[in-house]
Design brief:
Elements lengths: L10 E6 L2 E6 L15 E7 L6 H4 L3 E2 L10 E2 L12 E7 L2 E3 L4 E4 L9 E7 L22 H4 L16
Antiparallel strand pairs: 1-2, 1-9, 2-8, 3-6, 3-9, 4-5, 7-8
């Protein structure tokens, strides 16, 4: 079965210097109603810079991490090269300008002008108490806050994510 779907952007990532934000399109401003009580949000975005027919067919990637296996299936990674380049980031909310539809955050791992597909509140219950991961990534931070200061550049081997 070959299904196709239409997905529309609801906004975009903005990166100006070291200021990160989500700009929500005017049409969707009412969707921000009562979001201010959440300290964190999940942002679903389209990896538009890696969206090509070739990259959508790249199902096995080369060595990505120092302690990782030599090859990994794309579903075992969070790499942007995917059959459907949909990614999810958890962000901390610094401030929300409801009039302009801007959500300010200290950081999001997306580029300027990245299309935003959806925004969802982050609930503490979304953490799994007893989560099992492979040994090669067991030393990674367990908490969002710790991930911000973790030396990720020392972990990454293959920045091009090729075979």
């Amino acid at each position: 079965m070959n299904n196709t779907f239409q997905i529309n952007s609801i906004g975009s990532v903005r990166v100006v210097g070291k200021v990160y934000s989500i700009q929500v399109n005017k049409k969707f401003l009412p969707a921000l109603t009562n979001i201010e009580g959440f300290s964190h949000l999940q942002v679903v975005w389209w990896a538009h810079l890696t969206d090509s027919p070739k990259e959508r067919e790249n199902f096995v990637l080369g060595k990505l991490f120092q302690r990782g296996p030599d090859r990994m299936g794309v579903f075992a990674t969070r790499a942007p090269f995917r059959p459907n380049p949909i990614l999810i980031s958890t962000i901390k909310v610094q401030e929300i300008d409801f009039d302009k539809g801007i959500i300010y955050t200290p950081f999001i791992d997306a580029e300027d002008k990245t299309p935003i597909l959806d925004i969802k509140p982050y609930f503490a219950m979304e953490r799994v108490k007893n989560c099992r991961v492979p040994a090669w990534c067991a030393h990674w931070p367990q908490w969002f806050e710790d991930a911000m200061t973790f030396n990720w550049s020392a972990e990454i081997v293959n920045r091009e994510l090729s075979n």
